[in-house]
């Protein structure tokens, strides 16, 4: 193990920083373009997103925090829900598609019209106007069909509709359209949005649950010391092959008193007092349930900076039934030989990862309990070193963490559904049981090395390499994260108007343990992403073309998910 650590440290130091920028994905929920950890995508509405420096065995999207109070709260492990945050004044359009060898597809799948392998596009168009006396308007439509074709026939049986989307018949996992109006003057900002949306939610049972929001409405209010949002959702759930319907009318939101950013370097202290809430009114055959039909979660955010080099920050909150807290301490040392040094410690103690999520899921005659007694605790210490010369940058990060009470899933039984798809017969696995805990210590060490070469603002060559070793009851982990990863990228900024960016990334194997009877291994491999951008500053226009996963093998990254394929997308953006 020591030899492996030395190897990765030397590789990261010799390959040619924090300024590293990955090629951006086409829209929210497509974080599989990151390689510094474990990012396993099943659709734009589900991704297991865990960076190598995060600590713990859970996904980033599983953790509720005050910074996510405007996120969409559904189940414990659902993530990547489409954002309704208004953009800056501009008009934009994006189109994209999965790509493949059509000559090869024709004889294998019976012709282009029979399988639509390349017929899985992403479409987006929207605008936000300039402010006129503070008043502005906005609208956005975006739909992502990626990952949707391999299990499309299975999901089609659930809704028995060819129009379960705002546009087209490819049965996308996410299809959203909204419009609204706002008023912004100084630090005062208020907006009202309303729209129609189709989502497929990945449940704990392994099912994809179709949900139609008709309508969804969201109001936001922000000033220097008051921040609030209120959401109304009329959601229709389809189950049992469309024979039964469930309806949920939900109100959720948050109110916070205090400044928006708690970690302000120039302030001695800062406090934010808030409350997040949700209330539901269910009828019909609902596949999920909130125990008391409502939950209210008051919380306190805080930051303290007693010196210029010492900072503390965190939050604590409780609903009476559940509680959650996170805190961090960071100490920055004076520079020595041009090296910036930071050491820190982070804690996460909670009775649940998401105190506002549902309590039960109903699958056939079984009830899956999504809450578990006890407490989880995660503690992580780190050391970070950075150095920047005229043309070179170097960095290293070492950390160790230990966790007890980590949430997992205690499987009682599996069931398998075999279905004929465009790619032959495929097996889809479902499970029953309850959310449980790992009541033993999980320990790990991780390291990361970064290096970069800069040539003015014209060119950057950068590389990162990392490792992580975890010791614990690994058979009860939902996911065994990748243990090694490497990213090499370059960025050319030519004539200040033309930018070329590309990234080579490698991730080792990851493994899902509790979604199938036999652990499901996601084989590691190399990926290549590239992007070209042309800027026309006199018109405020930017054109971008991006290809993602150009050399990655076609594989399913999440059980019951769709195939991860090479895809291309392009965007035009006009700023006002």
UniProtKB/TrEMBL annotation:
Top-rank taxon: Bacteria
Annotated signal peptide: 1-21
Keywords: Signal
Signal as UniProt keyword: yes
Keyword match Signal: yes
Name assigned to this protein: Uncharacterized protein
Source organism: Hallerella succinigenes
Upper classification of the organism: Bacteria, Pseudomonadati, Fibrobacterota, Fibrobacteria, Fibrobacterales
